[in-house]
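Entry 14: structure prediction run for Beta-lactamase-related domain-containing protein. Input pasted below.
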Amino acid sequence: MSAFDEAITFSQAHEIPWPRDPAADPARWGVHHDDPPPFNRLRGPVHVRGGVSGVIRVRGKEVAAWGEPDRSDQTYSVAKTYLAILAGIAQSRGLLKADERVSDRLPGIGFDSEHNRAITWEHMLTQTSEWHGECFGMPDQVEHNRRVSHDPKPPAGKKGELRKLHAPGTYWEYNDVRINQLSLALLHLFRKPLPEVFLDEVLRPIGGGHDFRWEGYDDSWVEIDGKRIQSVPGGTHWGGGISISARDQARIGQLLLDGGAHEGRHLVPREWAQRMPVPSQTAPFYGLLTWLNGDGRMFADASRSSWFMFGAGGHTVWIDPDHDAVVVARWLDGAHSKEFVSHVARALG
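Run finished. Output tokens:
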């Protein structure tokens, strides 16, 4: 009998009320329905999902698993954190500096306006950029005034309603269009498909990658060095995004918990891995595309050192340095995530 049986049973009893087949009841599946028309539609592929699954690792070893931990499912905004990992790899190669302006490195891809010229890579990675424009036909305004469950501030207006922009670095907003613009910028840095980079530099070296997919929108193709490459989104808000197993998510969480190292080799620079959960000045609940529990507001029973990757649809990757643990939960109804975390916290001791 596992110490985590109570948490596992609880999660299995609280599956998110989305249909498992997106085609079965489209109006109850996904998050794009909340967007103002004509942007409330899917633009990339989606597929049938599995049920509640999860993996728990303690001190580097898997101690519990449930559901279908090897099933590859779309993971929504957990993919944002993978973009932050790629940015760290880019910095280690001299392709970017976190505090430099994106426009200095990449003119001509949407950072050249008077407002956008001041945006740094760190602004993009902390969701404080206030980037303004269109990314593959999607204006940033689509995500103005968006409210997500762990955002402590109330929205200033109706979602999609134009609001006054703030200076880059001074205002936090969860905005998937800006995340997609960050992904496009990283593609221009690496000059090769990001799914290929992520597989080669992260997933395969840690023993993962089976059935991994990272898909873009039907129209998100660009030409770089004479090659047609698909730019991929940092989530599945409008379809596409990353499909990955719970075990691979746990492997990635373990990599970050271990300071970016696997079997003595740093796949992600230690300094970068340590920086990812550092609170941003503008939004102390947020690091580099990661959520933080420093004040215990998100999860009172989780350690204050805990940090998280979240995705719509009930996806959580929880990294707990105090207990040397990584916890992955998938397709868990978000209304019950706090209770699930409390169950796991008690088992961790």
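Notes: The CA atoms of residues 88 and 94 lie 10 Å apart. Will compare against the previous run tomorrow.
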